[in-house]
Amino acid sequence: MGPYFKYKVNLFWSAHQAHHSSEEYNLTTALRQSSFQRFGSAWFYLPLALFMPPTHYLVHKEFNLLYQFWIHTECIGTLGPLEYVLNTPSHHRVHHGRNRYCIDKNYAGVLIIWDRMFGTFEKERDTKIHYGLVHNLKSFNPVWVQVHHYVYLVKKLFSAKSFSECVHILFKGPGWSPGKPRLGEPHEIPEIPHDTTKYNPPVPLWVTVYHFYNFAVLLVASYLLGLIKSELPYVVALCAVLYFLYSLTCIGLIHDHHPLGPFCEIMKLLILISCDAYFGFYLSESLLIQGMRVFAMFSLIVWLRVLFKQVKGKRD
């Protein structure tokens, strides 16, 4: 029941589409989750509280998630007879594909027998699978990836001509529109040309290295925050999380060549330098900390120069 609503009801699809938005298919795709998914799926698990002990449910859930993590890979072909029973990397590649034959197939978490029983099973074919959404986002902005389908829904609701149409927009399939079946017309799903290229705007090598460093720092910082969050005031922990999210958004904007990218990066560095100036006495005066401060100041100068060139180019 849960998977059915998650993929075939527009409102719940909004809370899951972030997981399917990647054009790559590897273990990082398994970690690409929506911030809103738990609010859309929790209702389907609540009835379990009537007859299943919480400890049993939590253990089952964690094993289920762990199993599904490993099937997000292209490194494994088929698993022989296990393909008839288990959800495997081959089956799940079809589930993540946006080829016409892949849409709404192989919902299974662990056991593929349910798809075989209910007619939603599809075997992987020899043709290349293209991953992502039917209409890909063409954006690395993590906030936009999370909310874009909600924005789409709101626009459709404002254009609706009746209350009943609003209800249909929310609770029918993502492909529905007035006059069409509940899940839309399958033949309207666009065929993918053979020369399709993944969204990957070119950026200078120094930007790639710079963002790799920033992402590594954010990864370590978020891990450390998880260790000490109980010792921090709630407001401080919340500000740290918002700063991490803003930093990731800056990375996305710059890689998308968004005109606000350099400006947002400068603001991020100014916030970092200001916080260091105010709270810096709490930090150790180690060589690593000093090096990071120098790097932040140097980065600010570089991005100010990039912004200046951008503004000058527009004037010319």
From TrEMBL:
Biological processes annotated in GO: lipid biosynthetic process; membrane lipid metabolic process
Domain Fatty acid hydroxylase: 10-120
One Gene Ontology molecular-function label: iron ion binding
Keyword Nucleotide-binding in annotation: no
Principal subcellular localisation of the protein: membrane
Pfam families, per the entry: FA_hydroxylase (PF04116)
Compartments where located: Endomembrane system
Keywords recorded for this protein, A-Z: Lipid metabolism, Membrane, Oxidoreductase, Transmembrane, Transmembrane helix
Superkingdom, taxonomy of origin: Eukaryota
Membrane-spanning residues: 205-228, 234-254, 289-308
Cellular component aspect of the GO annotation: endoplasmic reticulum; membrane
Membrane topology note: Multi-pass membrane protein
InterPro entries per the UniProt record, alphabetical: Fatty_acid_hydroxylase (IPR006694), Sterol_desaturase/TMEM195 (IPR051689)
Protein name: Fatty acid hydroxylase domain-containing protein
Gene name of the encoded protein: 100640784
